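Hi D.,

Good news: the full-assembly prediction came through. Inputs first.
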Amino acid sequence: MAKAKFVLFGDSITQQSFLPAGGWGAALADRYARKADIILRGLSGYNSRWALFLLDRIFPTAALNPPVLVTVFFGANDAALPDRKSKAQHVPLSEYKENLQRIVSHLKGLSPSTRVVLITPPPIDVRGRQAYARYLRRATYGDSAEELPERTNEAAGEYAQACKAAAKEAEVPIIDLYSIFQQNPNWQELYLCDGLHLTAEGNTVVFEELVKILNSIGLAEENLPLDFPLYSDVDPLDPEKICRP
Amino acid sequence: MAKAKFVLFGDSITQQSFLPAGGWGAALADRYARKADIILRGLSGYNSRWALFLLDRIFPTAALNPPVLVTVFFGANDAALPDRKSKAQHVPLSEYKENLQRIVSHLKGLSPSTRVVLITPPPIDVRGRQAYARYLRRATYGDSAEELPERTNEAAGEYAQACKAAAKEAEVPIIDLYSIFQQNPNWQELYLCDGLHLTAEGNTVVFEELVKILNSIGLAEENLPLDFPLYSDVDPLDPEKICRP
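Then the structure:
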């Protein structure tokens, strides 16, 4: 059962990547069916500091079947403002960058063939975020009082920059989701469902950008071996051949 | 990284279970995020005879982390008629039943906690199947000559019955997809996209029926442990606690 293993490591945007409406993780599992196992390690609400604590548990060194690919997608929670409601999730900018570097270094040490892809946090649509918070408060408390935003697009941008710098220094590819989303003038509604998490279209962008990178680092789907022969290649006179490696 | 493992073992209907439009495998991965890894072992075109050859490769005995759940979903290809175009995939009815029993017996032997769920082949809509074949021939050869159907609903029904008998004898739960789909008078268009494979609605039925069974055999999502604490339970004064088992 040892098959190439792709691990998706990140926060809620990773945890939700198998949502029915076209999640990027599910799309990857579909594309790489019979070629790689897609293992979900998304931890809603987590930041790079907590991720670091879990590295040895999730990615033990000297494991039998180390991952061929790990996507690292933290920052949306690190960038929560330190003086607002989500402050427990905040991680200072310089520590965030250092944490990413330590995560990448650990992952690269798993095996010479382990490839790492960083993903920046998405941009933040404060108005979408507030509308969602209002909706939640109304639904939960019958109350719609405004609160100060716990995230801003400017802060997310600084963390995206730090993520890019970490990728450059560690020489690993990166999906600059922060910039890519904002190239579309309707990014707020098109790619984000609540000002932070991704719509089906946002998921599609992550999937397509990831496929581009996989194609460029020797992990193109068409170049990976099938687990077993195509059914049309099974020899009807000696079908048992399929189980001989 | 040892987490409960659910393996989806079957033919193309399993292989395609992560398709973007609401695949049942993806829905399961979403529902059980942070609780179980959903491992895809769908082999398009395979029948129960070929599945049997692969058992030791896919499910070695004495593996370190045996699956907690295996879904076994073969029969659609076994039921291909022996005198038509797909005859290489055909498996006689009695052998099909015996193969299922041997598969279940092997899987139950993996560990005392490994649970097996059988799924019958879906019903066949011959008209939908022929329309699809016509479409393919036109697209590929510019030719729309009719061919005799390679599958019938009657044959699928016999294999579904054999699957039910195997489940009963082995005392494992079963999703009788063949009957469940046909309870809806529009099953042909509602649940099947080409007379055989599943639409989004068909995928939803498989997912919902599987969840019902999981709830009844001690694998309800809400009863499985989370991998790591919820972010809201992380102690800000001692976050490193999350990595201590």
